[in-house]
Amino acid sequence: MTRLAGAVIAMATGALALAYLGFGWPILLIGGPLLVGVTITVLVLVLTERPRALLVERRAAVTGASAWKNAAERGENGGAGLMSGFFEISPQPRTVPEQRSALSSPARPAETRKR
Questions:
Q1: What is the CA radius of gyration of the chain?
Q2: Measured CA angle at 62 (ends 61, 67), to 5 deg
Q3: Continuous H helices in the chain
Q4: High-pLDDT (> 70) share of the chain, %
Q5: Angle ∠(5,8,13) on CA atoms, nearest 5
Q6: Which three-class secondary structure state does DSSP give residue 92?
Q7: What average pLDDT does this structure show over 59-87?
Q8: What is the DSSP letter of 108?
Q9: Phi and psi (nearest 5°) for 106?
């Protein structure tokens, strides 16, 4: 994770340097704060990754269950979620209404058409 964070900060610094060479000093007014924001965000993610991983390991050790187990294996009711019933198959298939062909039924009567 630390190597990836370093790579992200290095790419952001390289992008800012390239923009500085191409556009001059005004690009630093936008790029400087963006580089600081990227650096702070990446550092916060690096610092919080280890405690998050420890928490996941501790929860898995206590419950004996994986965080990726599906709801049925955990014994949760499958019909209680936000999208419950959305993908249910109805007992009777729905019939599609007949479609009329454009050739068999014109949009306006034949006598009103231009000739």
A1: 31
A2: 65
A3: 2-23, 27-63, 71-74
A4: 55
A5: 125
A6: coil
A7: 64
A8: S
A9: -65, 160
